Amino acid sequence: MRCYNSKFKIDLILLIIGINFFIISCSETKNTVTNKTPLKSILFAQINQDGIKFEIDTAQFKSTVSSSVFSVDSKIQFDKIEVVKQFTIGEEKQPFYYLLLTDFDKKVKTARWLDNVANSLYLNQNVKKKSDNFELLYLTCAGNKNCNPNIFILDKKRSWICGENPSCLKEGEARQGCDIYTTFIEP
Predict the structure, then answer these.
(1) What's this model's pTM, rounded to 2 decimal places?
(2) Which end of the chain has fewer surrounding CB within 10 Å, N or C?
(3) Could you tell me the CA-to-CA distances from 113 to 44, 99, 122, 146 in Å, in that order?
């Protein structure tokens, strides 16, 4: 098991996800834009006193991500979608939100960063410099040994990892019990 960025059919994946997110964003009528709202973003959920209120069609979103990120042969079907709040690990402890899609049978978890702007959680669609598109990455953790998504901060840079051990940030180091895949989606 090696840590690596998945380049599997990336052109097709980017095209499919880009089209799907375009359709989702065009059909979303609840979005409001303020001067703090990230440009080219999709309102995903709202935080209120009762918890999290999704602003998207969650069934459609699960299906779209599953079919766009994974091959048909993988038969990944997400059972659950949720918004998770936790703290980064590493040099700094910062609170953050992310969406988490889970397929319990296949032991697969896919995560993506959510921008929190005044208790509105957005999927950022802004493409920045090539080296700084962290918020556009989908992280997939597959396995059953401490395989939960985390963000590790090292030298002021955020990196997605699975579990709490950043060994996959080092080239050539392997983890046992948890495979890691990232998918970059350019909107």
Answers:
(1) 0.72
(2) N
(3) 11, 7, 9, 20
